[in-house]
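Query structure, 314 tokens:
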């Protein structure tokens, strides 16, 4: 667990925040520590290619499981974000310049890991004129060259005030376009102050307008103080934007300087959210305490594709 000094060094922008208590995790949220030989091999590939992963930067609880299966989610455009969301463990500041060879390095790592389905995300790059959209497109295209059969999922920033940026990414034809709403609108000012709920929703709707066959995906965290009714409204908003796939997971507080956990949502409540989401028309739903955007993404993509075929047949 990070010390207060660690937090101040890594997150100087969060050092002024008052400490919030770290709640003891219930049994259903505990995970085993990483340590398998395949985990070490995955780590070596990431290091040798000089890459950043959201698995490490965001302190994902599923890293042991995923890396032991040679699954990693690549975080492009550096390890420094231009925003300071209250839930996120990625450091904030002025990022370095983009690395021109990063697309090829990512593509090489995907090939070496033998990934059938690759997930590529990034920090927010408000400092760039296009928010990093062209760099996303270059990574997608380099991966297509290196491993033509690999399906590609992108988890992008919101490209706020970056005209034409979204179109650049969609034109590169990822198989899944993911952008997380993260929480309910009422909590945006507290949890995601640099973002705008309806802009993020519109971004996902626009993807479907540009390419109706591209799968869209979005996720939220629960346990931040939202109500069940607010979660239901987010589901309805997502369906109005034709989003195919929703993920719902428990918020886990990275350090005492981050937003406090309001409560631990029970597995039964997650199951109820899943049932409701399917009833509202989502093709794919993942709802559990340890659900994260890219957790089991490959298996989920296969199920998503099958669900579309099945849905079309009715």
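Result returned for the query:
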């Amino acid at each position: 667990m990070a010390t207060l000094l660690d937090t101040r060094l890594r997150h100087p922008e969060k050092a002024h925040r008052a400490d919030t208590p770290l709640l003891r995790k219930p049994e259903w949220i505990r995970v085993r520590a990483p340590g398998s030989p395949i985990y070490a091999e995955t780590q070596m590939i990431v290091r040798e290619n000089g890459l950043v992963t959201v698995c490490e930067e965001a302190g994902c609880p599923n890293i042991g499981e995923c890396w032991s299966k040679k699954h990693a989610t690549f975080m492009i455009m550096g390890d420094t974000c231009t925003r300071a969301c209250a839930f996120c463990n990625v450091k904030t500041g002025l990022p370095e310049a983009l690395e021109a060879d990063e697309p090829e390095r990512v593509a090489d790592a995907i090939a070496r890991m033998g990934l059938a389905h690759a997930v590529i995300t990034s920090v927010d790059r408000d400092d760039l004129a296009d928010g990093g959209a062209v760099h996303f497109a270059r990574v997608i295209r380099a991966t297509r060259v290196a491993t033509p059969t690999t399906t590609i999922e992108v988890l992008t920033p919101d490209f706020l005030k970056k005209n034409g940026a979204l179109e650049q990414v969609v034109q590169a034809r990822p198989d899944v376009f993911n952008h997380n709403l993260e929480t309910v609108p009422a909590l945006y000012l507290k949890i995601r102050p640099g973002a705008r709920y309806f802009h993020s929703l519109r971004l996902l709707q626009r993807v479907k307008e540009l390419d109706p066959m591209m799968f869209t995906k979005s996720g939220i965290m629960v346990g931040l103080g939202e109500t069940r009714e607010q979660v239901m409204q987010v589901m309805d908003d997502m369906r109005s934007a034709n989003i195919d796939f929703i993920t719902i997971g428990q918020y886990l507080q990275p350090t005492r300087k981050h937003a406090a956990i309001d409560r631990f949502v029970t597995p039964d409540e997650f199951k109820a959210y899943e049932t409701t989401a399917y009833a509202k028309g989502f093709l794919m739903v993942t709802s559990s305490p340890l659900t994260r955007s890219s957790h089991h993404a490959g298996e989920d993509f296969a199920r998503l594709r099958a669900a579309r075929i099945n849905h079309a047949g009715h």
